[in-house]
Write a structure and sequence with these properties.
It is a single chain. The protein is an all-alpha fold. The chain has one domain: 434 Repressor (Amino-terminal Domain) (Orthogonal Bundle). Helix 2 packs across helix 3 and helix 2 packs across helix 4.
Length: 114
């Protein structure tokens, strides 16, 4: 199954669980062996492979065990370097600055006007 915007969360969890199970079997690891290497319980691995939700950190440990952790770079790529940031000597932007047009919501008044 292809994961896209049309899939609900439960279908995505089920598909990810099946993909992890296929990778584990292709790696010739039993659930017990894979769970022991990942540092999680066999039950947690079994629940995930059946489409149940688990903690993200445990999912990362499973991916590391199956040697596919690098694939997360495809999921959320690093931010490309913006030439406008070069003058900041490597400081990353922390917030968005509003322009003067964004701040204007109408004519400014002193407050004592009726």
């Amino acid at each position: 199954m292809k994961i896209d915007d049309g899939c609900n969360s439960y279908a995505i969890l089920k598909e990810l669980g099946q993909r992890v199970k296929d990778l584990r079997i292709d790696s010739r690891l039993s659930q017990e062996e894979c769970a022991a290497i990942a540092g999680i319980s066999r039950r947690t691995l079994s629940l995930f492979e059946s489409g149940q939700d688990i903690h993200l950190s445990k999912f990362i440990w499973i991916l590391r065990t199956l040697k596919v952790l690098d694939n997360l770079n495809l999921l959320i790529p690093e931010k490309p370097q913006d030439p406008r940031d070069w003058s900041d000597l490597g400081h990353n932007r922390k917030r968005v600055l509003r322009t003067r047009n964004d701040e204007k919501s109408g004519d400014w008044k002193w407050g004592d006007e009726v």
